[in-house]
Amino acid sequence: ERAAAPMPLTRPSHFSLLTARYPREHGVVNNAMALPDEATTVTELLRDQGYATGAFLSVGLLDKDSGGGQGFSTLDAASGKYQRRAEDTVSSALSWLEQVQDGPFFLWVHLFDPHIPYAPPEQFRSPEVATVPDVTWPRLNRIAGENDNNIPAEILEQAKELYRGEIAYTDHWIGKLLEGVERRAEPEDTLIVFTADHGECFENGSFFEHSDCLFEPAMRIPLLI
C-alpha cells in the first residue's frame, strides 16, 4: 500500500525494477543513459533457468538501445521517440504467448497510455471532455505562458479527466492480456505483478507532469502481486 518509485523517470525506474538496484547503483540516472552490460537483470537469471523471455514495450525509450533488452529473446518496442497504443502492444504480446512452447515464461508488457499526451480514444472519453483538445506539452506550455506559468483550474480538470480516460482504455487491454495469460498458463502456477514506473504530479504548479517532481503523486505507485 506504500510502494514508491525510485525515481520519476522511465529508464531509471524501469531498470530498478529489472535489476533490484537503485538508479545510482545500476548506473542509469536519466532517460539518455543505457543500462550497462555488466548489470544483471531478473530476465537474465530467468533465461538461464530455461524461461522463455519476451518484452513488449509501448515506448521507444525502452528499446534495444536502452539496454533494457538484456536477457530477452524477444524484444518488441515502439521505435525511436514514438509510443504505441496498448492495443498494439498487448496484441503483439498475446501472439508471442501463443507461440511459446510448454514451459516457464517471463513476459514483460509495458503500457504507456496514461502518460502525457493525454489523448484517450473517443469511446473512453467522458462527456465532459468529448470535444476537448488533447493535453500535450506544447499546449500546456502555451497555456502556462499565458497565465504567469500557472495551469488554470479548468485545464487541470480537463487533463485529469482525459487521464482517467487513458486509464480506462489501458484497463480494458490489461483485461485482454490477463485473459490471454489464463489461456496459456494455469492461474495458480502464474505470478502476475502490476506496477508502474511513476505517477503524475497533478496540482503542483510547474511540476505538472512528473519528470522533475518529488511530490507524492509522482513518486507513489501501485503494486499488485
What's the layout of helices and strands?
Blueprint: H1 10-19, H2 23-26, H3 42-48, E1 52-57, E2 74-77, H4 86-99, E3 105-110, H5 137-145, H6 153-184, E4 194-195, H7 216-219, E5 223-224
Parallel strand pairs: 1-2, 1-3
Antiparallel strand pairs: 4-5
- Proportion of residues in β-strands: 5-15%
**Which class of secondary structure composition applies to the elements?**
alpha/beta
**Global morphology:** globular
* Sequence stretches where pLDDT stays below 50 over 5 or more residues: none
Q: Give the averaged pLDDT, no decimals.
A: 91
Largest sheet: 3 strands, parallel
Order of helices and strands: HHHEEHEHHEHE
Oligomer: single chain
How far apart lie the N and C ends?
11 Å
Q: Please tally the helical runs, counting DSSP H or I stretches of 4 or more residues.
A: 7
Which percent bin holds the helix content?
Answer: 25-40%
* Computed CA radius of gyration, to the nearest angstrom: 18 Å
Number of strands: 5
The strand line-up of the biggest sheet is 2-1-3
Task: Please name the defining characteristics of this protein.
single chain, globular, 225 residues, 3-stranded parallel beta sheet, alpha/beta
